Structures are given as structure tokens and as C-alpha cells.
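Sequence in, structure out.
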Amino acid sequence: MELSVEISKYPLADDYIPAIKDFIERLHAIEGLSVMVNTMSTQVFGDYDLVMDSLKKEIRRSYEQFGKVIFVCKFIGANLDPALNPHH
């Protein structure tokens, strides 16, 4: 099963950019995930188990490393990666 997730991360800190960049870089480093970034969110596409396991690990790491962080996520049970579906 394929999954698409849109994630917005809101670190509750004055210096929030490093926390966001770290999260995005870690997701980019995971083989098998497709990651797209825009000014409002990060979109992650791939196998359901890989996406969910990766998010579980990286969200926990964000809390442990950066403290209070809010994540807002949207999930859809399909791979909507524009690179795979250029006409959608």
C-alpha cells in the first residue's frame, strides 16, 4: 500500500529554522521515500510502512532534540507524488 503525507512542523522556539531543516534533511536521507518541500509544508510519498516507520522515528527525534514541537499532518492512502503522476 502506498501513502502520501503532508506535514507542517512548528517548533515552539525563537530559532525554529534549524529544527525544520533537520527534519527535512533526515527525511530526504531515507532511501525509498520521495520528499517534496514547499514554503508551507513537506510532502512525503512512499510505501505505507516505510513512511509511517520513518515519521515515527523522526518525529520522536525532533521532540527529543528540539523540545516542544507541533506537527500538523494529512494522510491519504495513495501515492500522489507528482513525479509519478505528472497529470494530477
